[in-house]
Amino acid sequence: MKTVLFDLDGTLADTAPDLGRALNLQRARHGLPSLPDDVIRPHASHGSRGLLGIGFGIGPEDASFAAMREEYLGLYDEVFCQHPILFDGMAELLSEIEARHLRWGVVTNKPRRFTLPLMEKLGLNKRAASIVSGDDCEHPKPYPDTLLLASKQAGVAPSSCIYVGDAERDVIAGKAAGMRTLVAIYGYLGDGDKPEEWGAQGMISTPLDLLRNLP
Known about the structure:
Number of helices: 8
Number of strands: 8
Number of domains: 2
Low-confidence stretches: none
CATH class of the largest domain: Alpha Beta
Strand content: 5-15%
Strand order of the largest sheet: 5-4-1-6-7-8
Radius of gyration: 17 Å
Oligomer: single chain
Order of helices and strands: EEHHHHEHEHEHEHEE
Shape: globular
CATH superfamily of the largest domain: HAD superfamily/HAD-like
């Protein structure tokens, strides 16, 4: 095992407060009250689709979805770097990965226009061996394309990578890419999620639990 790849929202960093802030700004525009953080948080890993679903009850099949998504992304553009923080133990984990002469990177479905500034805000953009966003390939997760691109950027075989994420699509993509997969159950899992049924090789309750899976 040579490289650890992380999902971004809900795995590497706690970005739910800013994702929720943008959603509540949008709800206010449409005359709706704010939703509590604990209502929004379980949907934060599902991107604009999940957030518009909980915020407005719409999905990609609705005629208004595309315009609402653009409105949401415009509002998120204003707030997305206000309060991102690493999950407790993640800074120590990344340092230990590097101390063991292993590499790490990020594979997210987040658009690149947000991913790179966010990684810079976290002070990680120059440390990562690969940073791949959802629009860097034609097909984002659950397809394996972005994970395969990340392993190529890191200069390692996919079979030498662990992919860690907090959504079922992360496991599906990681397995399709030929990587070992772990579920970050400290992330944005909802009441209906059943990570034990996703087929990952393991689950971790804290970032530092990952060390048991590293050489």
